[in-house]
Amino acid sequence: MSNTRGPQLSYVSERTGSLGCLGWFIVILSGFFTVLLFPITICYCLKIVQEYERAVIFRLGRIIDKKPKGPGIFFILPCTDSLVKVDLRIISFDIPPQEILTKDSVTVSVDGVVYFRVSDPIASVANVTNANYSTRLLAQTTLRNVLGTKNLAEVLSDREGIAHSMQSNLDEATDNWGIKVERVEIKDVKLPHQLQRAMAAEAEAAREARAKVIAAEGEMNASRALKEASLVIAESPSALQLRYLQTLSTIAAEKNSTIIFPLPMDVISHFMRK
User: Known InterPro entries for this protein (predicted)?
Assistant: First the structure.
C-alpha cells in the first residue's frame, strides 16, 4: 500500500509547481489590497481549523503546500486563495441490503457497516470528487464480489473472515483516494422463507436423531447395570431381602393409602415343596 501512495504524492507535488509571472502578479496585487484594506479584510484572511480537521489550500487553482494546514489559526489571501476543510474523524455508514447469489446458487440478502477515515487530506481532495460517496458505492460492489465466491455455509458461519476480506479489498482500492478503512462488519444475513423452513426441518430431524441415539445408549447402559445387579443378588440371596425392605420403606414414604406386600420367596417355596 505504501508503494502505491508514493507516485500519488509525487503526482500531487508536480501539480503544485510555479504560478508563473501572471500568477505572481495577481498574488502580489491581492496582498497589496489586503494590507491596504486590512481592517476590513481581516475577517476574510483569518481562518481557524479544529483539532480533528485539516485544510487544503488552493492558490489560483494550485495546492500551495505538500501537506495540509492545521490545526490552529492561519492566514490566507482572500482573492486568490481558497480552502477545503477535511474531517479526519472516523466515519461510519451502513451498506444497504444486497441481494447476492452465492457460489452454490442460493439468493441471500446481506447488509453491513463500514468504518473509515481520511488518512491523506490532499489525496482525498485532489484525486476523487467525493471520497465519502465513492467509498459507499465501492463497499456495495465489494460486498457482492466477496460473497459471490462463498457458499451458503461459509456466509452463515464465517462472517469474520468475510469482513476481513472486504476490509482488505476496500483498503487497497481506496488507498489512492487517501482513505483508510478501519473496520467492516456484516450485520445480518436474511435467507428466503422456504430455505429457512427447510433448514429448520433439517435441524429438527438432526436433533431427534441425536435424542434417539442418546436414549438407546441409556437403555443399553441400564440393561448392563441390571445384569450386573442380578449377578450380585444371585451370589448373595440376603441381598434380595434387603432390596425388598428398601422397596417397602420407599413405598411407605409416598403416603399411599394402600400398600401391597409381596410374599417372601422363602414362604412361597415352602408351599411349593408341599
Answer: Band-7_stomatin-like, Band_7, Band_7/SPFH_dom_sf, Band_7/stomatin-like_CS, Stomatin_HflK_fam
